[in-house]
Amino acid sequence: MGYFKDIIDGGLSLIEGMGVTARRLFQPLITVQYPRKKIPLSSAYRGHIELKIFEETGTHKCIVCLNCEKTCPSGVIRVQGEKQKEKGPKTLTGYVIDFSKCSLCGLCVEICPTSTLEYSREYELVGDTGADCVFDLMLRLAKQVEQREEKKKTQGIAA
Ligand code: SF4
Ligand code: SF4
Prior knowledge:
3-stranded antiparallel beta sheet, about 15% strand, alpha+beta, binds iron/sulfur cluster, Alpha-Beta Plaits
């Protein structure tokens, strides 16, 4: 009896699987010829963290509180700052993350009191060694600020 039941179950499973295949046949293709074509990233996508640029200041708002560094469960954040004046606040001088060990838990983004951390939209990252996954966020920020300035100039010329 069990033998025939197995055959019937197997047959039903096969029909169900073929049904899924048949339905997919008449739906639009979702495969794209990457990298020639790309699909829009989900708004929920998380790349490595980076420093946000604020319109009003043209740069980040990090106050070197070290909350992110202390909170990171993977211990991959290194923040450096120095005082410009003896009694003044610290200014951010270095922000490095080792993305190879980041779990993208988001705690650093959530705990930042100035909301100056965000997820990048990077997904085309490659590296031969772990060192290639160590990112200098200050350097990235400087490049982004430069690109924004260039873009503004170009738009100004075009207008
Ligand atoms: S997302 Fe999580 S693991 Fe990654 S740097 Fe932030 S706190 Fe650390
Ligand atoms: S938590 Fe935010 S403000 Fe504090 S050190 Fe990290 S990035 Fe800077």
